[in-house]
Design a protein that fits this description.
Shape: globular
CATH architecture of one domain: 3-Layer(aba) Sandwich
Helix content: 25-40%
Structural class: alpha/beta
Strand order of the largest sheet: 3-2-1-4-5-6
CATH superfamily of one domain: HUPs
Number of strands: 6
CATH class of one domain: Alpha Beta
CATH topology of one domain: Rossmann fold
Bound molecules: adenosine-5'-triphosphate
């Protein structure tokens, strides 16, 4: 919260396909707002993931589910800027646009799971990301932090404690352990496609949207269990 005359708090963006948004994302967002005393956390659905298959559900519908999920939640918002751009949704472009909006002095955090961090070297202009933001990496039970290769070396160079996120506008990587909720969108799509219920894994209004629009029924049968590919960047959490 920002008191009169106080330095404004950080703004965080949580990028992803959100196909669909689920309680793992949402609970992480609430804990991030409270733990890091954020002014705001914006979910930023990507329109066109550069390094993964196009999601079977269009960006407008995925963003609509995010908006349904966070309706009325304090300090949570949906940022639609990637839906308004043509071409691949590169995170670096979104950060430049956010910087233009927030000014150079405001702390800006890019949130990603440790699975996304492991693939960071595959992202477009990944070594420039920290010029514009801090990165907050959420430790996830199914994806360890990289311990070798370019991302591991980069992490060792830039790792910071939480207090730095408020003091500087950009440049650090902070690793945070939140409540682990092993839920993935892949699993939810698999459940729906197989005729099982996704109730209590997604908010009720999101479930209603999925049912009303018949989403995920036609997905190709695939593993219901989450699979993490650490070799290839997920350019849509980019
Ligand atoms: P998919 O299974 O389709 O890959 P996902 O559940 O991982 O989807 P994304 O939209 O790809 O969801 O993820 C957006 C961001 O949320 C990524 O940085 C990812 O690491 C993170 N994330 C996904 N699930 C969780 C979870 N259960 N807890 C914390 N972070 C999560």
């Amino acid at each position: 919260m920002t008191g009169a005359g106080a330095r404004p708090g950080p703004v965080a963006v949580f990028g992803g396909t959100f196909n669909p948004v689920h309680l793992g994302h949402l609970r992480s967002a609430v804990e991030l707002v409270e733990r890091l005393e954020l002014d705001e956390l914006r979910f930023m659905p990507c329109a066109l993931p550069p390094h993964r298959e196009a999601p079977g559900v269009d960006a407008a519908s995925r963003a609509a589910m995010v908006e349904l999920a966070i309706a009325g939640a304090p300090r949570l918002a949906c940022d639609r800027r990637e839906l308004e751009r043509d071409g691949p949704s590169y995170t670096i472009d979104s950060l430049l646009s956010l910087r233009g909006e927030l000014g150079s002095g405001r702390s800006l955090l890019l949130v990603m799971g440790s699975d996304a961090l492991a693939g960071l070297a595959g992202w477009h202009r990944w070594e420039e990301l920290l010029d514009h933001c801090h990165i907050v990496a959420l430790a996830r039970p199914d994806a360890a932090l990289p311990d070798s290769g370019p991302v591991a070396a980069w992490l060792a160079r830039h790792r910071v404690e939480a207090d730095v996120l408020r003091v500087r506008p950009a440049g650090g990587v902070h690793v945070l352990q939140l409540r682990p909720l092993p839920i993935s969108a892949t699993e939810i799509r698999g459940l729906v496609q197989s005729g099982f219920s996704a109730r209590y894994l997604v908010p009720d209004p999101v479930l209603a949207h999925i049912e009303r629009h018949g989403l995920y029924r036609q997905e190709l049968p695939g593993p219901v269990k989450r699979q993490v590919n650490t070799q290839e960047g997920n350019d849509c959490q980019q």
